[in-house]
Amino acid sequence: MKKIKNTTYKIALFVIIAFMFSCKNENNTTTANTSDTKTSQQHPKLILTAQGVKGIRAQLGTIPIFDKSLQAVKEEVDAEIEAGIDVPIPKDYSGGYTHVVHKKNWFILQKAGLLYQILDDEKYAKYVKDMLMEYEALYKTLPLHPKTRSYARGKLFWQCLNDSNWLVYVSQAYDCIYNYLTEEERNKLETNLFRPFADHISVDSPQFYQRVHNHSTWGNAAVGMIGLVMDDEELINRALYGIKDLKLDANKKDDDGGFLNKDGKAGFLANIEEPFSPDGYYNEGPYYQRYAMYPFLVFAEGLHNVKPELKIFEYKEGVLLKSINALLNLSDSDGDFFPLNDGQKGMSYYTNALVTAVDVSYHFGEQDSGLLSIAKQQDKVLLDDSGLAVALGIKNGKEKPFTKKSINLSDGSEGKQGGVGILRNENLELVFKYAAQGSSHGHYDKLSYSFYENGEEVIQDYGLSRFVNIEQKGGGNYLKENKTWAKQTIAHNTVTQNETSHFSGKYDIGSLYHSDLNYFSSENKNVQVLSAIEKNAYPGTTMLRTMAIIKDEDFEKPYMLDIMKVTSATANQYDFPFYYFGQVLQTNFEYNSPEVLKPLGSKNGYQHLYLEGSGKASEDNTKFSWFNNNKFYSLTTETSAKDELLFARIGANDPEFNLRRDPALILRAKNSKNRTFVSVIEAHGSYSPVSESAVNSNSSIKLIKTVLDSEDYTAIEITNINGNVKLFITSNTNNLKETKHNITINGKSFEWSGSYYFK
After folding, report:
1. What is the DSSP code (8-state) at residue 271?
2. Mean pLDDT of 556-562
3. Residue 46 φ/ψ, nearest 5 degrees
């Protein structure tokens, strides 16, 4: 078909196609095995169903977002068909030519299969068949991939994970052209390609497959989905429950230092049970939840369609659908996911995996109209049953805004292993992490936080050290600095004791413990508070952190209040960093800058910090202001005369420039047993480079002061520049909502019920 430029004409053509062709699933009788009526009724049946095909064809040309998505996919696949098939012999890491081509092929195969079903155009089925036959000829000749870095090598790719990606997508393509193929052709593909492929990523690679991890989720889904297409019950059961009667060494670890199979749990159902909390939080964090959601959901769709008796979307009280809401809430105002644990910044709900998540959640969930507004922002839908449902919802004007509010998400399979809280007030977002280790992708940063304004980082979490799929940087894989810097405690906005990371930076120890919620309060829209405690990061030391975003009429914008109460049996050095972005404007302390930059330390991440300046606190409050993205920010923090203030910058001992050169201000307290760090961060004012005018560029705080700090209560006075005083009291121990408190501070009594007092 020649390329038609006029979009209206294209849509009209789709309508004509819908009427010209019947809604049958069989292909032209010259190539299809039309005698198998049962098979004809069954395919497609994974994410696209026979009934769905009928519905889509009947609506073509009348559902704008679906028609637009279809046209984009058609243009993409047509260009690939015109370019010809390329199935090279594997040799590269991520980002290399052969890796990129095989990755592109899995996407194109899946899309071409969908086009065949929707448009009933044989050229797409032929393209899929021809490429699959080339893979059949290649795969039966392949040894393990020549790159040896992975703990579980694939054949098409350097790791079984990518092989599993391939099979998850290609199983959908096979499902779409199943009836187009003859029985002989199907037998050839299943015998020489699909069954050996499924066996390699499972029984041949149990260290990859037989575990609870995002890797094995992909493997389970791959084996299960091809099993559903082939009606292979053994493969389906292997996917759901793992490899029968297999036991692995509980002490072996993967490339990231995580245990392969410490608890003996495996299979798709275990991968739903274990990593997800009842709130839908995924223990590896939002970056990897986003990555794992695609196989979770497409396999779940297939199981729903083929094995409805499993009631997969009701499994563990419907946690798969709950997890989508949790994941969407783990994004900033721009839709970018917060980079907790190993997380690449910039990954957002505009990724294709979240198009799947939003569409599936709407179709199989409660038809949440808020999801339609996100789908509208994504500006595309899946070319399947769920995509049609979303497209019709948008067409009928059902969408409403998806509102993100303050939320506390528990961690752990039973919701008892800490969690992650997000406090939101106007345009400010505070992300407070008090979760469990987060599997092998976890970082050693208990009670850490990051802070955002309008989706822009004010106080950052570094994220991961990796250039994903950029071959020039370590083959696109994790860099050594991910362990030496990004995972270390000093890389995060929390307390580091004696220049040693939490749990000594050891996964074996860190994976045993989690922080605990003290309280979460979001009922008062002007005062959002979360408090959590950590008792195991350092032996003999307890950290209790209470964080709040407070909207006060005396301030232009809400501000963040941070109270970190550290108690220890011994005297220690405490380092308390602020990873700000932007240009230093002003300080109220003097400091010296060295002529030659040297590392701040020799290990545990300190070797990667240049010391750019140092000074001593000169007042009870240290003030530091900076400028970023034409906005002003100010830090006010309580200090003593012994405290040091260190200007640092990431990048020491990094000759290959793998790390970003980001700045930090570090408050250092030496020879201290018990210390309560109290800080306020204000977002204020603006600057116009056009008019060259600065508005409200100075802090509105005159003084912050701790007026009570006991085992049970900590009270902070906040005085603004006009002399107005506000008092915040947090209950450190007895903090139930119904608890009544009565305390005296400087001769004045204060009574309240609940976890905190603010007035």
Report:
1. H
2. 97
3. -90, -100
Q: Are 434 and 421 in contact (CB under 8 A)?
A: yes
Q: Is residue 644 within 8 Å of residue 622, measured between CB atoms?
A: no
Residue whose entry in the numeric block shows the structure tokens 């140092």: 614
What is the predicted pLDDT for the residue at 552? 96
Task: Give pLDDT, residue 443.
Answer: 97
pLDDT exceeds cutoff 60 at 17: no
Closest CA to 266 of 222, 197, 209: 209
Left if phi > 0, otherwise alpha if psi is -120 to 50, otherwise beta: which for 746? Answer: left
Q: Are 323 and 293 in contact (CB under 8 A)?
A: yes
Q: Which amino acid is at 267?
A: G
Query: Which helix (H) or strand (E) element contains residue 601?
Result: none
Distance CA 375, CA 324 (A): 13
Q: Report CA torsion sign: 8, 11, 17, 22.
A: negative
Tracing tokens 């909502």 back to the chain, one arrives at 737
Both tokens of 430, joined, read 């505070």
In 3D space, the residue among 707, 410, 682 whose CA is nearest the CA of residue 561 turns out to be 682
The dihedrals phi and psi of 199, each to the nearest 5 degrees, come to -65, -40
pLDDT, residue 524, reads 96
604-661 pLDDT tens trace: 999 999 999 999 998 999 999 999 999 999 999 999 999 999 999 999 999 999 999 9
Q: Which neighbouring-strand residues pair with 106?
A: none
pLDDT at 683: 97
Residue 259 · residue 208 · CB < 8 Å: no
Catalytic, 304? Answer no
**Residue for token digits 């995002």?**
214
Residue type, 633: Y
Helix (H) or strand (E) holding 22, with range, is none
Alpha carbons 385 and 391: distance in angstroms, whole number? 10
| Spatial distance between the Cα atoms of 463 and 491, rounded to a whole number of angstroms | 9
Q: What pLDDT band is residue 23 in, cutting at 50, 70 and 90?
A: very low
Q: How confident is the model at residue 264 (pLDDT cuts 50, 70, 90)?
A: confident
Which listed residue (363, 441, 443, 514) is catalytic? 441
Q: Measured between alpha carbons, how far is 176 from 112 in angstroms, rounded to an integer?
A: 9
Q: Active-site residue among 124, 135, 281, 288?
A: 288
Per-residue pLDDT tens digits for 285-330:
999 999 999 999 999 999 999 999 999 999 999 999 999 999 999 9
The total of other beta-carbon atoms located within 10 Å of residue 570's CB is 11
What is the number of alpha carbons within 13 Å of residue 343 lying toward its C-beta?
Answer: 27
Q: Distance (Å, rounded) from C-alpha 221 to C-alpha 228?
A: 10
Q: Is 441 a catalytic residue?
A: yes
How far, in Å, CA of 137 to CA of 510, rounded? 47
Residue pair 376/350 in contact by the 8 Å Cβ criterion: no
Side-chain half-sphere CA neighbours of 367 within 13 A: 8
For residue 206, give the H/E element and its range: helix 206-209
Picking from 73, 26, 25, the residue whose alpha carbon sits closest to that of residue 52 is 25
For 726-748, what is each residue's pLDDT tens digit?
A: 999 999 998 888 899 999 999 99
